[in-house]
Amino acid sequence: MSQRTTFIVGAVAIAAALAAALMPLSPVLVERAFSTGAYPVVQRVVTSVSNLLPFAAFDILLVAVVATAVFALQRGVVASFKTRHVAPLARVLFAFASGGALAYIVFLGLWGLNYRRVPMLSRLDVVASVAGTDAVRSLGLDAVRRLNELHAEAHRIGWAEPEWSNATLTASAAQVQRELTGVRAAVPGRLKDTALGPWFRWNGVDGMVNPFGLEVLENPDLLPFERPFVAAHEWAHLAGFASEAEASFVGFLTCVRGGIPDQYSGWLYLYWQVAGETDAQTRRQLSDALAPGPRADVQAIIARLRAGELPALRLASWRAYDTYLKANRVESGVRSYGEVVNLLVRARFNPGWVPVRRAAR
């Protein structure tokens, strides 16, 4: 391919990526054509294949991209030094820009357009007002009560079974997803160790979905009682719920409608989330109401997070993630994590934590 052709292809890719990033799209159109149309078909195929791999495909992709970039940059720098001209290095940098543009287009086509689908508050029957302090406190006390009730039996049963082969948890995930979208549920992803494990540990990240391989990557330090909720949260991402709050909403409903160990994991997550959204007095009230068993589990999570955390790196990483979310039209950025509490308080449920869909207009 000639340099002229390469430049034209790269310029077209960059222009297409910019258009895709800036173009306003109807959430209803994205919901029908992509999130409940093309995407579920792609997800079932890609995740089914990635589940067959005992390793994270993302690690291979990451190594390949980094090695290629380093090699190309080294060649560009050497060529520019030898010729005393900036053109070779400029061509490499342009290749990086056009490659990044192509990667962004693939990201949108494989998963990223889910950021632009119909939001959860628009698909559910909800109360009009934002969650108040009393409602949040009540939800937190419900979490404490359920943790105290479930702790002994949950620990007696344990969490030995891998989450993606837990028939009760996967069936619950499928049912919740169908209730919210009306389409066939996503294929659950196995939780995979990854070369990013240390980065997860240093930043306090529990897991993520590889948007190019639609696989689930986990923090290797997760405690057994954390894993069901983390799995359910990431499966919600695989089902096309890109928003962190919406994935947590779906993940919580999945857990509380699962087996006793799964329920305990879901309520433990909710306790943690509510405690982070309330004032110091309410946090003390919730903490004081915990029985010794759940209190020990909360302390174990705190110890896990503190043991590997690098505060400066975590701050920088979360700032970068905040920028990423806002670039994908999540206006609240990382604050969107806490919006799950508002969703749970405002949404209407039938018995058994079955969400009530908004009537079609």
| Mass-distribution shape | globular
Number of helices: 15
Determine Rg (CA atoms, Å): 22 Å
| Average pLDDT rating | 90
Q: What's the SSE pattern?
A: HHHHHHHEHEEHHHHHHHEE
Distance between the termini: 53 Å
Supply the helix-strand structural class.
mainly alpha
Helix fraction, binned, reads 55-70%
**Looking across the biggest beta sheet, what order are the strands in?**
1-3-2
How much strand? under 5%
Largest sheet: 3 strands, mixed
* Oligomeric state: single chain
Unreliable spans? none
Please give a structural write-up:
The chain contains 15 helices and 5 strands. With 361 residues, the chain is mainly alpha-helical. The strands form 2 sheets. The protein has a 3-stranded mixed sheet. The protein has a two-stranded antiparallel sheet with strand order 4-5. Strand 2 and strand 3 form a beta hairpin. Helix 3 runs antiparallel to helix 4 and helix 7 packs across helix 10.
Summarize the structure.
This protein has 361 residues and is mainly alpha-helical. Helix content is 67%, strand content 4%. It has helices at 3-22, 27-50, 57-83, 87-110, 120-123, 133-157, 167-181, 197-203, 227-238, 244-256, 260-277, 280-289, 292-308, 311-327, 339-346, and strands at residues 191-192, 207-210, 215-218, 349-350, 354-355.
